[in-house]
Design brief:
The protein is about 40% helix and about 10% strand. The protein is built from 14 helices and eleven strands. The protein has a seven-stranded parallel sheet, sandwiched between helices. Strands 7-9 form a two-stranded parallel sheet. Strands 8-11 form a two-stranded parallel ribbon. The protein starts with a strand and ends in a 5-residue tail after the last helix.
């Protein structure tokens, strides 16, 4: 493979990983491989269960020229402790496998979420700063970060961490894609002739409590994190500016040519699974991809995002001072993601 750098994007089928693959494929100084797969055409893929250490080492023979890893893999568990065991083990097996095949690894770019600040446990002091103290474990992000620090201190490679929140992208079938939550909800609302009504709390709708991260923007930041000396050995928050859902909701409604109604709080996870037949009729009418409805959207994620009534604000000063200063508009990123999902025939 030609190119100055050779990337292995782990978790390439997810919102983050797919955007990183797409960004790197468009750069002439990068060659890119995906693990396990990607939606970007013309990219070499490696399929392996990262929980199997021996199989991982064998599979990584095909990636022995890897100079940079972009690690966006995530696997759920029975509980937080099981999640910690699984995700810590996956990263360890990958790093051990690359070392075993003699890969000239220069830097690992790792992705964490706001869970690193304990938001899954309840209200957390905001803004979130990268040097905030840790909370009571288990938290798989801590295990992974400690592993990177340990290997970095041993001279194996450099590392950099990006901390997004509610990533906005164009992948269907990912349970934590808030754009699919909004898009499917809007399409089903329009089908029965009702306005687009925010299904979360009034406080979240009108308050400045939310933040998102555009996947393509993060992919560009990932290249910076992989190469810039200022990014080595550091963790950085990476989020768009805080916003009101009330403002974003109007743009989503406009994208579907709908009126906006007053908020109507209810549980998406309880109500929306009942709309499977209605969605199937939209699939047939508009010639959409026939992804199983139960895998299409994580309604529980919408409930979490639309009902988190405490401040979700990450300070962005550190990454700007370090040199990554590009900014994007929140509303535009969501509408762009909707249009891409339409082009892929995932949304009507």
């Amino acid at each position: 493979m030609a190119g100055q750098y050779t990337a292995l994007v782990v978790g390439a089928s997810g919102i983050i990983g797919n955007a990183v693959v797409r960004e790197l494929k468009g750069r002439p100084d990068w060659q890119v491989r995906a693990l396990p797969r990607t939606f970007v055409d013309g990219v070499e893929t490696i399929k392996v269960d990262l929980l199997d250490a021996q199989a991982t080492a064998r599979a990584l023979e095909a990636a022995r020229d890897t100079t940079h890893v972009f690690y966006a893999a995530l696997k759920g568990g029975a509980d937080l402790l099981d999640e910690e065991r699984i995700n810590g083990g996956m990263l360890r097996n990958l790093l051990d496998g690359l070392k075993a095949v003699g890969a000239p690894l220069q830097r690992v770019v790792h992705y964490q979420g706001a869970k690193v600040y304990g938001v899954h446990l309840g209200p957390t002091r905001a803004p979130f700063y990268e040097d905030d103290p840790r909370h009571m474990t288990p938290n798989f992000y801590y295990v992974q970060e400690d592993l990177l620090r340990e290997r970095g201190a041993a001279g194996d490679f450099e590392w950099s961490i990006l901390r997004p929140d509610v990533v906005v992208g164009d992948i269907a079938g990912n349970p934590m894609n808030i754009v699919m939550v909004m898009g499917v909800f809007a399409a089903l609302s329009k089908a029965v002739g009702v306005p687009l009504r925010f299904p979360g709390s009034e406080k979240v709708y009108s308050g400045v409590l939310a933040q998102t991260t555009d996947a393509d923007w993060m992919a560009r930041a990932s290249v910076w994190a992989a190469l810039d000396p200022m990014a080595a050995g550091e963790a950085f928050n990476l989020v768009n500016e805080p916003f009101r859902w009330e403002r974003v909701w109007k743009h989503v409604a406009a994208a579907f040519d709908m009126e906006v109604g007053a908020p109507q709080p209810f549980s998406l996870a309880k109500q929306m699974p009942l709309k499977a037949d209605a969605w199937q009729r939209l699939v047939q009418r508009h010639g959409l991809q026939s992804l199983p409805y139960e895998k299409l959207v994580g309604w529980w994620f919408g409930d979490f995002v639309f009902n988190t009534e405490f401040d979700m604000v990450s300070d962005m000063g550190k990454i700007r001072r370090a040199g990554f200063t590009e900014a994007v508009q929140t509303e535009a990123t969501m509408v762009t993601a909707i249009e891409r999902l339409r082009s892929a025939r995932q949304l009507p």
